[in-house]
């Protein structure tokens, strides 16, 4: 009776889809509530900024706020996130839930694709692998940045529509829908070009002159309509979106055919790393990478063998395809799944990036996310074939492989679950870059301060206005620091009524922009630019800054010099932190050690597994040792988004003076969060600090209350 009930359940498509989507949401929400490292890739708050800007009116039109110029996925993702912002507010949880919703749709479409053109068992297997996916796809499915993972979902939808054209009646609606979604998804993420090339290739195999058909011109017209947002943005921005194309053409000119073999070898040697189990599995990480890699390779070559055999058979004995609808070669649906990784490989060989170059796991392999639907389908079809064989040995092998993948899926994502208390303060942190508004104001209105202030003052929270002016100062100094007098442009800010706290943020932004310009000038070897740290700060000293604000300019400059973006460039200067501090006035030197500690602290819990703190830098002034550890403590507390219990658990690993400094850093974080209030239990105190640790709040407040850190939160709320 039970088996019959399960069989009836399995035959009900709606129930099956409901159950797999429910399982998908359960797994993602569990990770969302228990994982401390979720998105934090840097691009997601762009989406949040656009979504909030659409709600409040300062991001209309939204094009200028998108992450990159060559695709507009962040704008489309913001539109998707908008309902979640309305319900949950401008918080990270809204972005993550919008991503879960999008990939739930992707799961439904991949189920429908495999069920319709292969069989239901293969569809269920594919969905299982999609739900219990390797860490790269698991984590990226909780990210909505407007690229990469979303491209994977779009590729599935495009393939489903395309196969309807091949195997079913090629209706006008399918041509229009395929074209429009191809254009729209290409604007969303340029990676989708791989999917378009793939189905166009299969289209060519099916019909050698398909591009001469009347309906194909309807397809092209709808593709142009779908791609229209790209044109709108570029007409407003001097066609910046063509930069990736022109850059790619220049790169292609330098390609040597003799290097193709070595590039292929590099791909096959390093391809197993894309699953990044080694970063997230509690055990057997490298082994899990290899197992998944081998399973995909075996499945891929099984499908390739099947296609060749099917091709030979169909041409030697023409017959109707077993698929419902009009006749057609049955191997094309398999060829579509096989061709996609092949064209991905071609693009890889002709591209700029290489697996393993940066060793940054999720970031380094993010372009491989688009491969995963084909990886899941290939393995599912292979296991489905084993399960359908008459041989008990083959069926047993199929069951064993299936169980192995499920076990790998659970264990391989083990480090994502940081704690089982399901309390993740990060979900309630702001999902907005307010400084982006100031940068856009500079791009739109330049030195017209009245228009700039008119745009910025549409923001409804005061710290957001302050951070927006910081972004304006950043772009201002970027544009005018090298080879021009910055003073006369800064003077323009005095024509508007800028309160003291907002002016502090503005000069912090000016300092950050100066540091960014310094690195850019070094890379581009701009004549007359400061070529060393001492000269850089001499240039900073030349800038006229009203009394009382120079410390904030230094604060921004130091922060900019030690930022994640330029960390490698800083190291290439062969500088120790003492060299940087020695170039500063004596009263600002502690800031260098503090921010260096913040940079180091960002790397500790951010690696998912919590290693010991790095050894003390070789060149380090002992008089400033405490500020280094205070920076680490503040950064760790920031990583845990104010969860004092988790911060205390990590920092309690240490003893003696180091422990005291680390906890003072945690206290500094809460001071910043509480705007240095003398009441650490007040209503504006966002997260609770255990009573026995409030002494560190008071220590930090006494130590930093008369410094430029007071009133400027350099860790949160950007």
pLDDT below 50 for ≥5 consecutive residues: which ranges?
A: 321-328, 358-362, 606-610
Shape: globular
Report the structural category: mainly alpha
| Helical run tally | 33
Distance from N terminus to C terminus (CA atoms, Å) equals 60 Å
Largest sheet: none
Q: Rg from C-alpha positions?
A: 28 Å
Total strands: the figure is 0
The percentage of residues in β strands lies in under 5%
Mean pLDDT: 82
Helix content: 55-70%
What does it look like?
It is built from 33 helices and no strands. It has helices at about 1-10, 15-35, 45-55, 75-90, 90-115, 120-130, 135-140, 150-165, 170-190, 195-205, 215-225, 230-235, 245-255, 260-270, 275-280, 285-315, 330-350, 370-385, 390-410, 435-445, 450-455, 460-480, 485-490, 500-525, 535-540, 550-560, 565-570, 575-580, 590-600, 625-640, 645-650, 655-675, 695-705. Helix 3 crosses helix 4, helix 18 (about 370-385) packs antiparallel against helix 19 and helix 24 crosses helix 26.
Write the layout of secondary structure elements.
Layout: H1 2-11, H2 13-34, H3 44-56, H4 73-88, H5 92-117, H6 120-131, H7 135-140, H8 149-167, H9 172-188, H10 193-206, H11 214-226, H12 228-236, H13 243-253, H14 260-270, H15 277-280, H16 285-316, H17 331-349, H18 372-387, H19 392-412, H20 434-445, H21 449-456, H22 462-480, H23 487-490, H24 500-524, H25 533-542, H26 550-561, H27 567-572, H28 577-582, H29 589-602, H30 625-639, H31 644-651, H32 656-673, H33 694-704
List keywords for this structure.
718 residues; mainly alpha; 33 helices; 64% helix
Summarize the structure.
By secondary structure, the protein is mainly α. The protein has 33 helices and no strands. It is 64% helix and 0% strand.
């Amino acid at each position: 009776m039970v088996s019959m009930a399960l069989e009836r359940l399995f035959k009900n498509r709606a129930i099956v889809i409901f159950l797999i989507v429910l399982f998908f949401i359960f797994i993602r929400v569990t990770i969302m509530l228990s994982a401390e490292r979720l998105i934090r890739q840097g691009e997601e708050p762009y989406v949040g900024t656009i979504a909030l800007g659409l709600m409040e009116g300062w991001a209309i039109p939204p094009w200028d706020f998108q992450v990159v110029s060559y695709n507009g996925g962040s704008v489309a993702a913001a539109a998707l996130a908008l309902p979640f912002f309305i319900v949950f507010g401008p918080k990270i949880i809204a972005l993550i839930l919008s991503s879960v919703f999008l990939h739930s749709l992707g799961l439904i479409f991949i189920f429908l694709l495999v069920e319709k053109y292969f069989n239901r068992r293969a569809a269920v297997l594919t969905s299982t692998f999609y739900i219990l996916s390797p860490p790269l796809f698991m984590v990226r499915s909780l990210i909505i940045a407007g690229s990469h993972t979303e491209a994977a979902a779009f590729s599935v939808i495009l393939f489903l529509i395309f196969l309807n054209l091949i195997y079913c009646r090629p209706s006008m609606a399918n041509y229009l829908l395929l074209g429009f979604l191809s254009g729209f998804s290409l604007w969303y993420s340029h990676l989708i070009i791989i999917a378009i090339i793939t189905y166009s290739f299969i289209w060519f195999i099916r019909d050698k002159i398909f591009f001469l058909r009347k309906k194909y011109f309807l397809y092209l017209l709808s593709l142009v309509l779908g791609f229209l947002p790209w044109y709108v943005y570029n007409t407003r921005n001097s066609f910046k979106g063509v930069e990736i194309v022109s850059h790619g053409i220049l790169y292609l000119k330098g390609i040597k055919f003799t290097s193709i073999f070595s590039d292929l070898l590099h791909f096959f040697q390093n391809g197993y790393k894309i699953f990044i189990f080694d970063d997230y599995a509690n055990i057997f990480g490298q082994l899990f990478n290899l197992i998944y890699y081998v399973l995909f390779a075996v499945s891929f070559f099984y499908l390739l063998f099947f296609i060749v055999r099917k091709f030979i058979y169909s041409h030697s004995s023409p017959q109707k395809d077993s698929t419902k609808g009009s006749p057609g070669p049955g191997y094309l649906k398999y060829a579509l799944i096989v061709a996609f990784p092949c064209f991905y490989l071609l693009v890889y060989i002709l591209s700029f990036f290489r697996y393993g170059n940066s060793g940054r796991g999720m970031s380094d392999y993010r372009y491989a996310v688009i491969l995963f639907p084909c990886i899941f389908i290939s393995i599912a079809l292979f296991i489905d074939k084993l399960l359908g064989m008459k041989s008990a040995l083959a069926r047993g092998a199929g069951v064993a492989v299936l169980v192995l993948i499920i076990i790998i899926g659970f264990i391989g994502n083990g480090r994502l679950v940081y704690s089982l208390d399901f309390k993740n303060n990060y979900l309630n942190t702001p999902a907005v870059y307010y400084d982006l508004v100031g940068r856009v104001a500079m791009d739109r209105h330049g030195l017209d301060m009245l228009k700039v202030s008119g745009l910025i003052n549409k923001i409804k929270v005061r710290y957001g206005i302050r951070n927006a002016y910081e972004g304006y100062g950043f772009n201002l100094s970027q544009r005018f620091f090298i080879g021009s007098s910055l003073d006369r442009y800064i003077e323009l800010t005095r024509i508007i009524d800028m309160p003291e706290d907002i002016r502090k943020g503005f000069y912090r932004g000016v300092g950050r922009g100066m540091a960014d310009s310094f690195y850019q000038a070094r890379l581009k070897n701009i004549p007359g630019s400061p070529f060393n740290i001492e000269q850089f700060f001499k240039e900073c000293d030349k800038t006229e800054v009203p009394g009382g604000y120079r410390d904030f300019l230094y604060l921004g400059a130091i922060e900019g010099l030690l930022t994640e973006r330029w960390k490698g460039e800083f190291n290439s200067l062969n500088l120790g932190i003492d060299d940087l501090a020695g170039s500063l006035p004596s009263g600002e030197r502690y800031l260098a050690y503090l921010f260096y500690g913040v940079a180091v602290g960002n790397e500790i819990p951010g690696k998912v597994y919590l290693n010991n703190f790095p050894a003390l830098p070789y060149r380090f002034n002992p008089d400033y040792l405490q500020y280094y550890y205070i920076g680490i403590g503040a950064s760790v507390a920031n990583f845990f988004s104010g969860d004092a219990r988790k911060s205390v658990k990590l920092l309690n690993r240490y003893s003696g003076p180091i422990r005291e400094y680390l906890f003072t850093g945690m206290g500094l974080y809460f001071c910043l969060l509480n705007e240095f209030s003398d009441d650490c239990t007040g209503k504006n105190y966002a997260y609770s600090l255990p009573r026995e640790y409030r002494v560190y709040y008071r220590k930090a407040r006494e130590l930093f209350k008369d410094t430029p850190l007071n009133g400027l939160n350099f860790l949160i709320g950007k």
